[in-house]
Specification:
single chain, alpha+beta, Phosphatase 2c, domain 1, 5-stranded parallel beta sheet, 12 helices, 17 strands, elongated
């Protein structure tokens, strides 16, 4: 973060300490919005200036201590806080930990350590504010930096009080980061259990589709892609759904999409075609996310490749929102393209329409629906995307492989192609063999 863009509010009743902090921070390029010595006025100043960092005297004189002030401010908005104290001990840490401070500044100040502590606090809070999917990696890097800094300083410090206080401060900061990391990871893992509970099990897929494969590889712990399946009367509905984003935001959209799809297909006595389901899903997403409200420019939604199979009649109906279906028969691979409109969003102003493709099925037919994560993956010797052409070539090369064995085959191929590259998106492919 650019120092000039950082606004700092100093809450300190010692005029000398406040002046010293102002001089240091001004020299380093920070903007000091105000210096306050009264707790109630400090809360009002926070509301007015909305600073990016608070430097707070933990033993502030008056009816409100520094801890009281921070507690009230954090009810309004979370903001990084550095407590100013002359003595850091277990009692102070225990008394202030419920306010989740970013660290402590020990008086008298060491200029270099003061600067490092402020920069560390701002950097750490900035990382915590990013998406939860990125936070796991960023927190790990921050912890490594703290450990490296702690190790480096262990070779430099002597037995002086100031240097011992520095070590305490670093250990306290590390403990805070570790606690925050654990809390976030616990939340993500709990979200995974919730998402897994809505995804049909392998037994449900086998019972409904017979010979099939589901290749499902989220980019992060939770996924914006999800396989969906529902039986109604003699029909089996299923599809590959690719929601906006990945990680936790994508997973939230996947929960909405799954619930809406179930309701649309189950409601009423008639068995809707895939295009009718997509049309109703589009309207439901717009209404659920209030995208038709004035001033709402959100384009969140999903792409979908949706199928309805009648095994008695041997008939397949397909409809797609951006996503296609690949159909293999007698060595010929045909592409049925989805319509150009996504599900959700108001960019087409309710002109989102979808069409059905009807395919009469024969024994031995194979067909595949998939999200774009597999074809957008970068890898190979040329560092290029996999592309639909490579996926088509792979299917044709392995057309004699039974569908029940296809998952392991394409999973190995994907991992070999990706190599050391990062996975760029959630990946989902569903194949069915008649």
């Amino acid at each position: 973060m650019n120092n000039k863009a950082v606004k700092i509010l100093i809450i300190e009743d010692d005029a000398f300490v406040a002046l010293l902090l102002r001089e240091f921070l001004t020299k380093w390029g920070y903007e000091i919005v105000d210096v306050i010595s009264d707790g109630e006025k400090a809360i009002e100043a926070f509301k007015e200036y909305q600073p990016n960092l608070l430097l707070v005297d933990i033993l502030l004189d008056g009816p409100l201590t520094g801890i009281d002030v921070v507690s009230e401010i954090k009810k309004i908005q979370d903001v990084p806080v550095l407590y100013i104290t002359a003595d850091l001990d277990a009692a102070i840490i225990d008394k202030s930990k419920h306010t989740e401070p970013s660290g402590y500044l020990i008086k008298p100040f060491d200029e270099n350590q003061l600067k490092a502590t402020i920069e560390t606090a701002l950097a750490s809070f900035s990382k915590i504010s990013k998406t939860l999917g990125q936070l796991k990696e960023e927190l790990s890097m921050a912890m490594m930096q703290v450990e490296e800094l702690s190790e480096t300083n262990s070779h430099l410090i002597t037995a002086t009080f100031r240097e011992r206080a520095l070590k305490q401060e670093l250990e306290a900061t590390k403990a805070l980061i570790e606690a925050q990391s654990k809390k976030i990871l616990d939340s993500i893992n709990y979200s995974l259990r919730i998402q897994q509970s809505i995804i049909p099990s392998a037994e449900i897929f086998s019972d409904a589709l017979g010979k099939h494969c589901v290749f499902y590889k989220p980019k992060d712990v939770v996924s914006g892609d999800f396989p969906w399946l529902l039986k109604k009367d003699r029909y089996v509905y299923y599809g590959a759904i690719d929601c906006t984003g990945h990680g936790v935001p994508g997973a939230m959209m996947s929960m909405i999409g799954n619930l809406l799809l179930n309701a649309i297909v189950q409601n009423g006595n008639e068995c809707k075609t895939p295009s009718e389901v997509l049309a109703e899903l589009h309207k439901a997403v717009v209404q659920t996310l209030k995208q038709d409200a004035e001033g709402n420019k959100a384009a969140d939604g999903m792409d979908a490749s949706l199928c309805r199979i009648d095994f008695e009649k041997k008939e397949l109906l397909f409809s797609g929102a951006h996503l296609p279906l690949l159909f293999l028969r007698d060595g010929e691979l045909e592409t049925f393209k989805g319509d150009k409109f996504p599900v959700g969003g108001m960019q087409y102003r309710n002109r989102n329409t979808y069409s059905d493709h009807t395919i009469e099925l024969k024994d031995g037919d194979k067909f595949f629906v998939f999200s774009d994560g597999i074809i957008d993956q970068v890898g190979g010797e040329e560092n290029m995307k996999w592309m639909t052409s490579r996926l088509r070539e792979f299917i044709l090369e392995n057309q004699s492989v039974p569908m029940n064995d296809f998952k392991e085959l394409i999973s190995n191929k994907f991992d070999d192609f990706k190599g050391d590259h990062k996975q760029v998106d959630d990946v989902l492919l569903i194949g069915v063999e008649i």
